[in-house]
Amino acid sequence: MKTSEANFDGLIGPTHNYAGLSLGNVASMGNKKQVSSPKEAALQGLLKMKTLYDMGFVQGVLAPHSRPHIGYLKRLGFNGKSESEVIVDAAKKAPEILASLTSASSMWTANAATISPSADTQDGRVHMTPANLVNKFHRYIEASTTSKILKATFPNEDYFAHHSALPAHENFGDEGAANHTRFCTDYGTQGVEFFVYGRKADLLSGPHPKKYPARQTREAAEAIARLHGLKKEFTVFAQQNPEVIDQGVFHNDVIAVGNKNCLFYHEQAYLNTEQVKQDIAKHFAKDFYFVEVKASEVSVQEAVESYLFNSQLLTVSDDKMILLVPEESRTTPAVWNYLNYLTESKQTPIQEVVVRDVKQSMKNGGGPACLRLRIVLSEVELKNTNPKTLLNEQLYNQLVGWVNKHYRDQLSEEDLADPMLYEESCRALDELTQILDLGSVYDFQL
Ligand code: SUG
């Protein structure tokens, strides 16, 4: 039976904007208050999805969340007889809270959840745990809707086990698949699950960054491994180098990407690289490729600016992988030189580079890998996936039409105070739940 890796991308929502909400994410901090284009953002994301569909990959779509989040506005004491009045009240009294509750951040589905394929789990089901994202308020509010959307996308509990997010406390800070990688020989056989964390819950018990927050704890990673019923001997935990977190590497997927028998990473990514390599390599009888990029080839700063490692590493045939990188990797000279050298050398499985423009998302620190959640699915699991969420030519055209009909060309800081934005979003999302056959997943639909 054929098992493949599907990519579920977050459809970029109608309130995409630059509010500078993410301390430690240099793009988000640097582009604060710039004017965004939700329409361009969503179309760029859809084109990336279409690229992979056209190449023969299974490509899925995860719906965006409804924003601004009226429920949280009310819980925080903003009042009004209607949703519009609540928004106007918040805009007047605390625009920064309104901005947090208007973020379209659910687009970065690498942070939506951690997924363990059925080949790795004790009960033979695909296990999913939505990330609690406690480190950032605008992201912490995602977990409950993410859970509903995942259940509507993978409804059959005979095949899919849906866990609750971990307790919403910093000790269990969890950022989902952005800090999780799975290595394997074939997608359908036992894999090695690799969890990367930024700190331990007890800050006194080990190294941690000094300037920017470490979003993921070791305790969170261990809890996920327990919940998913992973075998201890096939689970590897590694700490990120705190010094790179302080340079803007807020998730492991900003400094490394892995697939099958290959880990592509920066030499400064981990605290103890040799241990990481040993722990992974011992599971592979045949070759495992550690493709290490030296600081002399690409500095951490260049890696962060270009998002070289926030790329999608995809298997196209037995011994060939392609790397889908953002446009910024092409325009950063050291990175582009390195990529040319890598593909020409033919020493590793990475033999081709595909470039895509996702600039609207990149300006918030979200590259190609942030926009997708990888889900390994067997044939029968794929059959039990909501078919309306799987991209094909028709769905692509339908979604492009939907974006063009509902999305604004531009969104500025002041526009977040406009209650019409909420109304437009609700109309768009209501229609989307029908297109994707999701049922009622939004509070405004209850
Ligand atoms: O959580 N940016 C996101 C980017 C997430 C990238 N994901 C991965 N690396 N997997 C974040 O920092 C910025 C929103 C703003 O500033 O308006 C933001 O949330």
Can you characterise this structure?
The protein has 17 helices and 15 strands. It has 446 residues and is an alpha/beta fold. It has one domain: L-arginine/glycine Amidinotransferase, Chain A (5-stranded Propeller), CATH 3.75.10.20. The strands form five sheets. The protein has a three-stranded mixed β-sheet with strand order 2-1-15, sandwiched between helices. The longest helix is centred in the N-terminal third of the chain and has 17 residues, at 38-54. It is globular and about 65 Å long. It starts with a strand and ends in an 11-residue tail after the last helix. The structure holds N~2~-(3-carboxypropanoyl)-L-arginine. N~2~-(3-carboxypropanoyl)-L-arginine (SUG) binds next to loops.
Q: Which secondary structure elements does this structure contain, and how are they paired or packed?
A:
Elements (H helix, E strand, L loop, with lengths): L2 E8 L15 H5 L7 H17 L3 E5 L7 H6 L7 H11 L1 H6 L12 E4 L9 E5 L6 H4 L2 H11 L6 E3 L17 E4 L8 E6 L20 H10 L7 E5 L2 H4 L10 E4 L2 E5 L6 H9 L7 E5 L6 H7 L5 E6 L2 E7 H4 L2 H13 L4 E7 L2 H4 L9 E7 H5 L9 H14 L12 H17 L11
Parallel strand pairs: 1-2, 4-5, 7-8, 10-11, 13-14
Antiparallel strand pairs: 1-15, 3-4, 6-7, 9-10, 12-13
Helix pairs in contact: 2-16, 4-17, 16-17
Bound molecules: N~2~-(3-carboxypropanoyl)-L-arginine.
